[in-house]
Here is the input.
Amino acid sequence: MEKNNASLVTAIQNLDLKSLLEIVLDNPMAHVNRVDFLAKIYNISDEDVRLGKIQSSLKEKEALAKRSIKNNITKSTSLSFASGIPGGLALAGTIPADILQNMIFSIRLIQELAYIYEYEELIDKDGELQIDGIILFLGAMFSAQGAGSLIRIASVNAANFASKKIMTSALMKTVWYPLLKNISKVVASKTLTKKALAGAATKAIPLLGGVASGGLTAVTMSVAAKKLNMELVRGYKSNYSEDNFSKDIKIIEAEFEEIESEKNEI
Here is the structure.
């Protein structure tokens, strides 16, 4: 535990989001079993889930997503409240605890929303969570430019469009990694910086600190979750047209050009 905690502190200090996620994904609590989850929320058998026998409207999916967001925020807030109660804890002990639990429930929420809206191919490969996909979803949660567009054009929902072939081209590989790196920086700056962790100072006040910590988590997660939900709904099948696809491509191209321009100025 101490070694893991030290690694977590190092990842936070270095704004190393990938290393942080690797530590978080070592925790079984961060994982959601897709079959079990979908079978439970739709009240169907595991076999029906495996065979793709899920019939639900977008309206029903949005209601399930809203419930999922509420459940994860409630659980994260409760844990954050608990970690905030003991006053006077060293920052090296309290900050990683808050970061870890908030990330765990953010990643659980990402999986649940991805499974509800059928974006699972972006985050789950042969039963293993993909860190790059998780970063994309975190990017959408924290308003990283281009993250929502990347999610939509990389999803199976966009496969109907002829221009989808760009996703497998050398050009897309050239665009993908710089954008992902930039998205990672944005997420790290909004979740791992001193400003983002300012609420940790409330740990010095017993009880009141617990209330403040839990409240901060609830507000932050609620806003971020709603942003991700909005981006996923925009890209869901009936909502996503070829015109929307073209707009997303333009957003990605513009963001890539801006990144390249900044690199040339250095």
